[in-house]
Amino acid sequence: MPDEPAVERARPRQRLSVVGVLGELLITVGVLVLLFVGWYLWLNDVIVGGEQTQSATELRQEWEEQAREERGEAPPPEPVVEGLSPDQAPVMAEPTTLNAAFATLIVPRFGDDYARTIGQGIAVREVLNSRRTGVGHYPGTQMPGELGNFAIAAHRNANGAPFGKLVDLRVGDHVYVETEAGWYEYTFRGLEYVLPTEVDVIAPTPRAPQTEPTERILTMTTCNPLFSTAERAIAYSVMTAWYPRESGMPAELAGEEA
């Protein structure tokens, strides 16, 4: 039977061929997975972040145009150099509708074109993953300009990464919250890393829930470290000035848009 050895030698080669095909398939699947992860973590941030910025810009322009029409003015007003005392800032009622857009967040440290819309609530799908907002206000915490703690949250990566550069803030940086009435200027004071269970960071007086608030605080929260929910990065700012819309935007912002 001279043909039998030849048949027996062919069988191992057939098995090796199947293994090779499976290996190639696994490599292809792995490459596709890596490409998808890269798209989700980078390109998706760019796309969604751009949409969130556009949404915030449109809301700001709408307020500006409305204010100019009410004054009967065509050109934008000259910016003021000095803001008013925080005590003079109006406080709007807290929205009752989930993801209702009521303010924009402007942080020069995050880039000249950075602006995000703030929606009501911190529901992940409806607010934090939204292409229209992306930044959410913790229900029950204070509103912009109100004595106490205006606490907001956003993703540090994915879905536009509104707080992707939160830990880059430096003491003295300004953070602006713009509403239909004008601009609330907050000044960054410090950063803290806490466990997810330490919810007292959003108390009226952060970390001291039994203490009556004496300042107007902005607390920005996000996950830490990157690509993890093990901790929370907390950025605290204190309100330092109020700029009513009829007087013009803060000079710092007017300079960026010029």
Any overview of this molecule?
The N terminus is likely disordered. The N and C termini lie far apart (92 Å). It contains three helices and eight strands, in the order H-E-E-H-E-E-E-E-E-E-H. It is α+β, with helices and mostly antiparallel strands. An eight-stranded mixed beta barrel has the order 1-2-3-4-7-8-6-5. Strand 2, helix 2 and strand 3 form a beta-alpha-beta unit. The protein has one domain: Sortase (Sortase, Chain: A), CATH 2.40.260.10.
**Stretches where pLDDT falls below 50 for ≥5 residues?**
1-10
Cα radius of gyration in angstroms? 26 Å
Could you state the order of secondary-structure elements as H and E? HEEHEEEEEEH
How much strand? 15-25%
Question: What general form does the structure show?
Answer: globular
User: Taking strands numbered 1, 2, ... along the chain, how are they ordered across the largest sheet?
Assistant: 1-2-3-4-7-8-6-5
Count of separate DSSP helical elements: 3
Give the integer mean of the pLDDT values: 85
- What structural class should be given to the helix and strand makeup? alpha+beta
Task: Tell me which CATH architecture applies here.
Answer: Beta Barrel
- Can you tell me the CATH superfamily? Sortase
- Provide the CATH top-level class: Mainly Beta
**Total number of β-strand segments?**
8
What's the structural domain tally? 1
Helix content: 25-40%
CATH fold category name: Sortase, Chain: A
**Main pleated-sheet profile:** 8 strands, mixed, barrel
Gap between N and C termini: 92 Å
